[in-house]
Structure formats: structure tokens, C-alpha cells
Fold these 4 entries.
Entry 1:
Amino acid sequence: MLLDLEYVVFDLETTGLRVSEGDSIIEIGAVKLKNGSIIDRFDLLIKPPKEISSEITNITGITNDMVKDAVDEEIGIKKFMEWVGDLPMVAHNARFDLSFVEMAFLKYDMGRFNNTVIDTLGLSRYLESNERFHNLATLVIRYNIDWDEDKHHRADYDSEGTAHILDKMLNKLDKNGIKTMDDLKRYRSIVIKNRVDR
């Protein structure tokens, strides 16, 4: 049952928007959510191969000085995936975050990325199809979740907010008769990557 599963809700901050043009991860933030409660946390700054631009610093608050002694991306993503294990992963606008994770798997010869990935953006569009806006700042208001906009765009804070949104969404799905992962996997805009058992 979806309500009984444990999830890793994660968010990445990056040097830019284009993984195909060499942008990379500068922060991984994640929480483990089970039965509506956050049971574990992961937060790691990562030193990128190029300097963080002032534009990205203005958005995220992450400076070059903050990451100068941080781990590199290979160590960071390996630590993160060890922490994740084979749990289903959840992100808001997950295709963006997934592109950086899958590129890291490719760059660092980590094998095949094989976790199920659920997108709360797709979930929101499904559950609230009459609504126009589905960004994180809108959803925390819609679902009555405490939120400090000044902390937005830090991976740890955004992952926690997304986890609280996910919990509310899982309850709505259950009331709509979508109770299992197999039920949810019928919606490709929600489950954007299916786990393939090896």
C-alpha cells in the first residue's frame, strides 16, 4: 500500500539547469518519510568542478566559500545512493533532479540507476487538474504546510516541504482509490521511472 511505504524525498541544488552542458550538483538534501513522519535526513554540500555563479548563489544562498572543502560530486552521489538503497525516490519536478542523478551514474561508472522515481509535480497536476499553478511555493499554501520562503531553494528545506506535500497527496490518492504502487505506475506523468528488478 502506498500509505505504508517508506520514501526518500530529495532535492538537488546545481550550478545551472543544463546537465548536458556540464552543470553539476552542489547540494543534495533528502528526508525519509514513513507513515507521515520524517524518520531520517541527509544533507550534503558538494564542491563542483567549476565556480558557482553569482546568479546561482543569489538563488540558493550557496557560495564558493561554503563548498571549498566539500566532497566532490562522485563521493557525494555515492554516499547519497548508499543512504537511499532501493527505496522509491520522490522529487518536485523530478525530471530535472533525475537528469543530474542519471548523469552522475554515467560519469562515475555506478551501473544502472534503478530506483522508482515519483514526481510530485505530476501528482499535483493529476490531483488538482483544475488548478493553474503547481510550483512548490504554491503547494505548501494549498496544503497548509508551514513554509519560510527565505529558506526556499536550499535542498534540505525543499525536500522537507516536498515530503509534507507528498504525505497529503498520498492520503488524497488513497481516497481516490489509488492505493498501491502498481495503481500509481499507470500514470507516466507521476511515476517517471519504474524500478526494474535485477
Note: The beta strands are 6-14, 25-34, 37-47, 71-72, 89-91, 117-119, 191-193.
Entry 2:
Amino acid sequence: MIIGLTGGIASGKSTAARLLGELGAYVIDADKLGHRAYEPDRPAFAAVVAAFGDDVVAENGQIDRKVLGGKVFGDDDALKRLTDIVWPEIRNLANEEMAAARAENPGCIIVLEAAVMFEAGWHKTVDQVWCVVVAPEVAIERATARDGIDAEAVQARIDAQLSNAEREAQSDIVIDNSGTPEDLERQVKAAWANLKEASS
């Protein structure tokens, strides 16, 4: 069983993933795999350098994500070229980790946490999609407090993402995190209990 867990900025997706991990799920964080995808020993490294130039490699031999970001920011074609390279590599890394988890515990429930679940098409490869949503004004309030960025920057990121309605329409379970941390925990535990009961 693979659960695809997604949500927008400051939705509480990572908190939900941590709770699921505490309940017994094996959690794979696609954001962390995204950093590994750029490592010099991975196929995406050479593909990114070939696509965007040698100047994206820093003096330490790693991809300079700021330089790379500058090349794709505001350029939809360049961003698509980058995601076409990196998203499949992240998925390969996730598949490697899933295989290792299943070898150790064949019956484990795996949670793939990914902000780009729908954009990358990964929702078609999981058994259920769980989506954490939060009202945009709450997301702005939480993100500005957490990250120290201004409200306009958060709003721009929200505008660039799928809307809550677009995510909800493609999800099996929707968890509303507009309330308290206790509300979120209660919803995650209830969804997990239902899943365990259905699969027993």
C-alpha cells in the first residue's frame, strides 16, 4: 500500500507525514530526495549540466541551486526542461527506497510525501492520495511566521500552485488543517485507523 501525501505551502503536509510515521508508516520525503537527485553521482547531474551549462556547477563540484534557479525562474520552458530531468530521478530514488523498505517489512504502508504529486503525475502510481489543505489566508499567516517571508511572496507561491479545489478533486482523503494541531492529529489518526481496518 502506497499513500501519496500532498498539499500546498504551509498546509501542514510535513506534520501529517511525521504523524503517519509515528503511527507506523514508512515515510519517504520527495523534497529530500530532490536534493539527492542533484548529487554528482546521479544521472540527473550530468543531464542538468548539459541542459543549463557548466556555470551551474559550483566550485565544490555540486549543482549551485541559486544559479540554476536564476536560469529557470519565470521561464516556463526552462522550468519544464528542469522538471523533466529531475522529477523522474526523484521517482527512481523513491522506488529504490520503497523496494528497500518492502524487503525489510513486506507489509509496510509507505507514504510518499510530495508537493508536486499531481504535477509530476505520481498520483497515478499510488494506491490512495491524501491531501492536506488549509485556507489561503491561514497558509499566508503560517508561512510568514515560519519562514520570515512577506505575505506577497507567499501569495505568489500559492497562485503558482494548484488550488485546494483542484487537489481535492483528485484526492481520496482530504484533511483540513485550518484548525488546531490537535484537529490535524485527530483527522490523521482517524484516516489511518480507517485504512488499517479496511486492509486487515
Note: Residues 1-25+109-200 form a domain with the Rossmann fold fold (CATH 3.40.50.300).
Entry 3:
Amino acid sequence: MVETIQWIDDRVVMIDQTRLPLEEKYVTCGTYEEVAEAIRAMVIRGAPAIGVAAAMGVALGVLHADEEGMDAQFGAICDTLAKTRPTAVNLFWAIDRMRRLYERLRGKPIGEIRRWLKEEARLVREEDIAICRAIGHNGAPLVPDGRTVLTHCNAGALATAGYGTALGVIRAAVESGKQVDVFADETRPFLQGARLTVWELQQDGIATTLITDNMAGHFLKSGRIGCVVVGADRIAANGDVANKIGTYAVAVLARENGVPFYVAAPCSTLDLTLASGDQIPIEQRAASEVTHIFGQQVAPAGTAVENPAFDVTPARYVTAIITEQGVARAPYEESLRGLRNEASVVR
């Protein structure tokens, strides 16, 4: 299994996902500013993974901060990391978790504060791997044996600290003995499906076929697809799901063709403060991601571009939401609240 992010010798080490699949290179961050830039530049991406990165970034920042004026420095560290990407709620969840611990530690010796924050960041990583395995265990029974699974973007080990959410469900289904293969949408414009999902599943020996995004409807209609499994960056209280751009279209096509559409995500991705997906902030990314592919211009100079990184799938298209605490189904206002409450008790 790929090591997405680790804490090694008081440095944050992460695989550079912008180089995959052609080059397996690791980036070492020695400051919280470097961690923030890695998140912003999508060296590391995926909601759970950037949550882990944020926690480690906070710990790294405090490790190198001056004891005098620590409160102000801590606030600046958290603010810098929080401004990197707006949609994935796991980022803010992790920062808030580190803030709460810092508040409990105020007044203690600086060495003790640093040690506890570092351990907490490591714990966030370890918990994420365990959570993903639990998501896989809960989701595996929903995957039809002998059928193809369609997935969009990358919600695998690379998007988490390890194992993955959507790909964790697929991995767990295979580990349970089911015969399944995968169709991976390429996921324009950043090509997370083509570059990352296919690479990951090839490492595991899971049969995978790459398709372009506009082929999904054709294959959903064909009867070959047994279910769709995707990840999520934020889930509102009513079950609306923000995920990589293009997910909404896949969900509508799945409903039209009677194919179950599952969302796999940890409870930390639930944002029950938002009544619906209409309130989820959508990140806008650079026009060059659309007008260029790997530095090669593919559109006329001066082309107007819209490049939202995410879209919101209304809850009515979501068959079920798979979490580490269990599987939620409509009405989501009730089922998601119950799962979040269980997660809070466990933690």
C-alpha cells in the first residue's frame, strides 16, 4: 500500500501526486508553510489526506515556533493552513481538533505542548487508516459479486492516509473474495482517475479499465456496471454531497439506469452545520488546468474558462452513504446525525 503521508524525523513526508503515475517522488516539508503550499498545489489531495496534512502542519508549525507569543503564532499557523482549499471540510475538522488540544494544553511547558501536538497529528493519521478499513468493511457487502464498479476521481490510499474510502470499499470487496473489476473515469481536468486511481489499483492487481468522463453514461446504460462508488469532500446535513466535478452527472446517469450510487466517506466529512449542499463553498481553480494538459496548450489563447473543482450531488440521487460507523440511508437528516453522534462517542 502506498505511503501517502508520514511524520519522519520531525518532517512531513508525502508522495507528490502531481508527478504520478510517471514518477514516484516524495516531498519533504520542514515548515508549516511548505505543508500549506503542498495542499494548495495538490501535491497532496483528497479530503481525508489534506486533513492529516493540516494536523501535521499545525504540529510542525508549533515545533518551530518561539515560546514567546505562542498564542499569536499558533493562530497564524492555523489560519494559513485553513486558507489553502475551501471545500473539503476534513481540513477544518483537523485544524479545529488541533486547536482544541492546544487550548487544553495552554500553560504547560512548551516541550510538552509540542510533544502532545505531534502525537495528536500522528494519531489523526493512524485513525484515518483504521477508519478507511472500517468504511471498506461496511461497504463491501453492497458491491455486487461478478460485476463492474464505476468510480470517479481518486478516493483511494492517495486521498487518505492509506487504504482509501471509495477504493477502500472496492479493496475490501476483493479481499472478501468477490470477483469485481473497476471502470475509472479519467476525471478531467486534473485527471485524478487516469493518473491516480488506475495507478493505485494496478499496484493491487485489481482489474481496471480507464474511460473518459463522457463514456460513463454509455456504460451505465449497458448493464455492465453493478454500482457506482465515489468519495466526498463535504456532506451536508440533508445528505447532499460535494465531490469532484463530474460526480453529479454520474449520479444522475446512475439513477436513470437503475444503478446504485454509493458515497464512501468518514464521519469527519459530515458537515451537519450546513442544511443543504447549496451552502457548501466550491473551490475555483486555475484556467490553465482546462486550457492545458501537462503543459501543452489545447485551447485557443484567451479562451474564457470556468473551472469549479467540485459539484454537489443532491441527496435524492444517493443510494447510501458508507461511513466507519455504518451505512446511512434516507432520510439522511436522521441517519447522518445518528452516525455522527456514534462517532463522537467513540472518539
Note: The chain is about 40% helix and 15% strand.
Entry 4:
Amino acid sequence: MTFRDSLYERARRAGRRIVLPEGNDARVREAAKRIERLGLGDVQLLEGTAPRSPLPAMIGLLRTRHPQRFSTDAAAAAALQHPLTFGAALVGLDRADVMVGGATFPSGDTIRAAVWAVGMAPGISTISGAFYMVRENAVLTFTDCAAVPEPTPEQLAESAVAGARDRRRIVGDEPVVAFLSYSTKGSATGPRVERVRRACELLRSRPPDFAFDGELQVDAALVAGVAARKAPGSLAAGRANVLVFPDLDSGNIGYKLVQRLGGWEAIGPILQGLARPVSDLSRGATADDIVDTAAVAVLQAGERP
């Protein structure tokens, strides 16, 4: 069974409600048909004017979460005119389990809608974006490749926590996290190396329920023979499946190199750190991309008992 087959099978079992707020787009409409045909969830497709029945509750949701930004009902109602904010509010009110949007809007709109209507997961203050890199049955999580240009040590640690949590739900295996650097265990020095080391210290203080280590060069993170020489005794070196990149440049460049030159498929970006799943789409997304993202978002919500 391929990773996609497993992804779809588990999404079917979850039985989640999926809101697609950009129903005026042909790709989104086609994706909605495929999601329903594949049995990946119950789709609510918003087309034209969204249903107004939950509007008073949505206004209350926004005003409660962000009273300074939405100081009046009119301000909240104006924000809810945006289909992504309306769709995210359905999730925030538990009228849907996940939202998948951004096919026709920039990522900033999706992220704002998520923060306003859904909020952050406990212990997380930063949204990060992961790609699930897939080749046959091999799956690697790359984070953060989509959101934070120059992450602080705290943000790197939070990206690791969010990536590990979501990997358990989406892939179904145990996360092994490597904080990447141009240095392995003191082979080099510099402010960027220190930032990664500090992220590891912060994560160690939590403490997490998954194996991790850093700072590690990417070969030491992935190749057992290299790990034995460069980082003997490491809990993560040589077997990492969650790679935490030190900045957005390296993360974005890294996933695209693996995708374009290595022949791996990239599923994402998958937004991490939210209290409930709101997924972003590239404006170049195909109907297939939307279906895959919806299946991943369903598993982010967790499988039902």
C-alpha cells in the first residue's frame, strides 16, 4: 500500500466534515466531487453568497477571540465577508472539522482567517508550514518551509513540536526530529549554529515525547553511516524523519531541490500549530493537490475512536 493509499483509507475512516470556501473556482468544484467520490469526508462547498444562518455566532466568535481588532459587530461582519474567514469560522464554531482554502487568495489571507477564527494550539504561538515529501513508501516531514523567514530559537522548537504532533496523525509513525545546520555537534560555530543549539535546549526543557537532536548536518541526520562518525550515540542522527530547517530560505530551497531533482512528491504546505486544521493551498494548485491537502487536513483533525 502506498502512502497516498494509506492516507485516503485513514481519511475515510475519520469521517470528517470539510469546508471548501472557494466554490466559484472550477478546480475547487472538481476537487469537491473527487473528495466525495473517494469518500474522504463530507464536503460543504461555499459558492457565491455563503449561508448567513451562523453569522451572529460567527460575529460573537471573532469579537470574543479578538476584542481589540473586532470592537464592533460591524467590524466582525465585514471580516466575515471574506470567504476564507467565513470558512474558518465554521471550523471555529465546530460546524466543520477542517477548512481547505487559498486556491484563489494569498497565504496571508488563509493564515489571518485561521488565527482569527480558530486560534493556536496549546503551547504554540507561531504558525509554521510543513511539506510532506513522498517517494514510494518513504515520507519525510520538512518544516518550516512556508511561513517564518528568520525563526527564533523558540519558533524553531515550536515548529519541531507541531511537526512531530502532526506527523503522528498524518503518517502514523513515530517522529524522529533533527534540527538542521551547517554544523554537526560543534564542528562549526557562529550565530546561526547557536540559534539551532538554543532551539534544542528549549525543546529539551519541555520535555518532548519524541526523539530529537541537533545541531546536525543533513547527511548526519539521514544516513546511519555518516551519523555513526559525526554524531555517535545520537537519539536522532541517521534515522530522522522530521527535518527542522534553520530558516525559510533553506527550507524552501531544500524541499524544491528534493522535489525537482530527487523526484520526490511534495504535499503541502500544511499549516501547523493551529488549534484545528485550516489548510493553505497554492494559487497554482490542481484539483488533485486540493484532494491530497484535504485528506491530510482530515488526519490533522485526528482519527475518530
Note: The beta strands are 17-20, 42-45, 98-101, 128-135, 138-143, 176-180, 211-216, 242-244, 265-272, 278-280.
